[in-house]
Structure formats: structure tokens, C-alpha cells
Amino acid sequence: xxxxxxxxxxxxxxxxxxxxxxxxxxxxxxxxxxxxxxxxxxxxxxxxxxxxxxxxxxxxxxxxxxxxxxxxxxxxxxxxxxxxxxxxxxxxxxxxxxxxxxxxxxxxxxxxxxxxxxxxxxxxxxxxxxxxxxxxxxxxxxxxxxxxxxxxxxxxxxxxxxxxxxxxxxxxxxxxxxxxxxxxxxxxxxxxxxxxxxxxxxxxxxxxxxxxxxxxxxxxxxxxxxxxxxxxxxxxxxxxxxxxxxxxxxxxxxxxxxxxxxxxxxxxxxxxxxxxxxxxxxxxxxxxxxxxxxxxxxxxxxxxxxxxxxxxxxxxxxxxxxxxxxxxxxxxxxxxxxxxxxxxxxxxxxxxxxxxxxxxxxxxxxxxxxxxxxxxxxxxxxxxxxxxxxxxxxxxxxxxxx
Length: 402
Ligand SMILES: Cc1cc2nc3c(=O)[nH]c(=O)nc-3n(C[C@H](O)[C@H](O)[C@H](O)COP(=O)(O)OP(=O)(O)OC[C@H]3O[C@@H](n4cnc5c(N)ncnc54)[C@H](O)[C@@H]3O)c2cc1C
What we know:
This protein is of the alpha/beta class. It has 3 domains: 3-110 and 241-304, 3-Layer(bba) Sandwich (FAD/NAD(P)-binding domain), CATH 3.50.50.60; 113-236, FAD/NAD(P)-binding domain, CATH 3.50.50.60; 323-401, 2-Layer Sandwich (Enolase-like, domain 1), CATH 3.30.390.30. The protein contains 9 helices and 23 strands. Helix 1 (11-22) links the parallel strand 1 and strand 2 (28-32). Helix 1 (11-22) packs parallel to helix 7. The radius of gyration is 22 Å and the shape is globular. The protein starts with a strand and ends in a 10-residue tail after the last helix. 42% of the residues are buried. The mean pLDDT is 97. It binds flavin-adenine dinucleotide (FAD). The site of flavin-adenine dinucleotide (FAD) has 37 residues, from helix 1, helix 7 and strand 19.
């Protein structure tokens, strides 16, 4: 194997390159990226970088020396347009054709804009990359009234960041509760209270929203029959679209993302996929999280090098909103949940545990309690049977259940 081509230069791509070199791959690594940046992570975009507490250099996955040591051959900014599986090469918009022995698709996802016209409006923003973040951060210097469309994780983080800067923020959510796809109603209520206590207005069931640009550059948000409300800008955080088109065009097995086995291999043995674009091999759907992108890519890179370590990680992700660090372990599975246990240790520390019929943990959300998340990872891995009384008793030291 002499040449590996990677499409994308985000979390998954960066960790794949790191792993390949660590595993002793000495051949050529070509990285194609349509962004003009070197491997960077996205979580701080909606948090410290948007609030300008941190600069864009804080996003770098690796130091300049490390990146130089990787000896990557960059094709950026350039766009991979087509994969020719039979000839084993990738076509780029620039006209280049890159042959590969192994190919990794790490194209991630992009911000979804539910109404195409919104994308053309000058003061409608999304948050996916550095450019989006810089544009919104600039706007927040002067904007005072901010509408956030979408009460999912990214929308809520942007709302929290803007609110902390003293902005008047209103959230418009299509569904009947916040983060409904990933958390239970109790957690949605917790999130709603967190934001309302900070002064944010939340409009649930906002199913008929329209946006109208005004002559003074503001944007009117019309929520059903309610009178129009005027905002200086609108941020759309309405989920992500998986960037799977290269794989679809190449007729790989594709569902909502690229179907891969536990080693990151797609339906073509020399084409791998990892990160947001790839389906989680155990869960059967795409997981959009930092840890998933990193660890699935590491497994795929090792597999390319002949070390087959199955990627079966339990999903874990976090979000920071105001003073709350919220960590989610496992997935919300109402059909399997038999018991819900809420443990409130103090005003700012609360955990929600979801147990199945064997009293084993399947999902948890911990607010400001990373120690319990570490412990819970072990409980899930070892299928530990838990006692409700111990979990919900704030005076019981959970570390005893190591
Ligand atoms: C604002 C924000 C905040 C987040 N916060 C958190 C958090 O707090 N916790 C958490 O766990 N997760 C968080 N996430 C999710 C996490 O960042 C993603 O799951 C992760 O970035 C996925 O990595 P990836 O490498 O799969 O894709 P990406 O990081 O999206 O990288 C894919 C790259 O491929 C490029 N690309 C796509 N198609 C092509 C093509 N055809 N040719 C060339 N290049 C192409 C894209 O432009 C992009 O640069 C956040 C995401 C965002 C956007």
C-alpha cells in the first residue's frame, strides 16, 4: 500500500492521519479539503470561539510541528467530486485525479437550512465552520436581538453564548420540546428552565415560521398567526445534512450515511468512512459527535494498516451552556427504558439515569458531574446491575460502585 487519499480535513480526517503515521505508514497521504484550514475541531465554534474567549488557533487538532511531521500532500481548497471505484481514483474540482490504494471518506455533515430562500438572506447565519463562526461573531458585536431557529444542541449553545454577552435571545423550536431527538422530556424541561432562567424566550411548536428581510437589514420572524417580531439577525441551528453524496454517486451502500462495518470499511473493501458521514456499526445510524469522529477514524486507520480493532463505542457527547457542562452517554431509548432516576447533588449538579428491565444503564445525562460519567462508562461496559436507591440518594457516594 503506497497511497492513501482522505477526503475531508476535520476531526475524523485528522485522527486518521495521526493514526496512520503512528502505525508506521510511510507512504503518501493525500488530503482533499474544501476548507482552506488544517485539521480542526468544531465544538468551540459555538462556544469559546464565538464568544471570542478563544481564537481560531485554539481549534487546531495538532501543533504545527505535528502537522509538518505528518508530511501530508494537501489539496485545499479543493472539492472531491467523484470516486471511480473501478479505476481506484478520486476526481477533484480542480481537474486533478488522485489514484488511491485505500480511500477514507471523512466529509462530515453541513448545516441544514429547512427553507432554501433563508440561505440567501444576508442576516441569516448558520454555524458549521470557521467562516460561519467569524461572520456571526462579527455580527454579535453590534446585534442586540437574536433569533435562534432550532432548539437542538448547537442552537442552544449559540443562544447561551449570545445571552451571556447580554443579547436578547429568542429560540424558535419546531417540536414540542428541546433536543427531543436525543434526550427525554425531563432533560428537555431542565434545558428549557436553564435558558429561561437566563432570560431567553423559548417558542415551542413553531411549525409555521417565515422570515422576511427588512429594508433596515433586520429580519422579521413570523411565527404562525403571531405578530411579526423584528431581529438583528437569525441563526439557523436546524440539524445537519450528512455529506454522503460522493458515496451515493459511487454506488456504495448508503442509507442516512455511509454503511460501514466495525472496521470502518464500506461496501467497497478499499473505501472506508468515518465520522459524521458514516453509520455507527452497532447503532445503525449516524452519530454526530466529536468522540465518534475521532474514535471511528482511529479504528478505520488501524484497519487500513491491518490491525482490526472493532469500533463499537457507546456514544458520548457533551455540550456547554452557561455554567452547565452537560454530558450525554448512551442513547435515548424510551422503548427500552424501565426506570428513570434523577440524582440532584446540589443546585448545579444533576444526573438523569435511564435503566432497562435488568436495571442496567442504557443512557445518562450528567450536568456538571464528569466523574459520574466516567464511572457510568464502566457500568455500561460491564453491564452492571444498579440499585435505584443508591443512584438517587445524593448522600450515597457513587464511587463505591466502581
Ligand atoms: C458548531 C458545532 C459545535 C459542536 N459541538 C460539539 C460538542 O460540544 N460535543 C460534541 O461531541 N460534538 C460537537 N459537535 C459535533 C462534532 O464537531 C462533529 O461531530 C465532528 O466535527 C465530525 O467530524 P468529521 O470529521 O466527521 O466532519 P467535519 O468536522 O465536518 O469535517 C468534514 C470536512 O470535510 C469537508 N468536505 C466535505 N465534503 C467534501 C468534499 N467533497 N471535498 C472536500 N472536502 C469536503 C468539509 O468541508 C469539512 O471540512 C459540534 C459541531 C458543530 C458544527
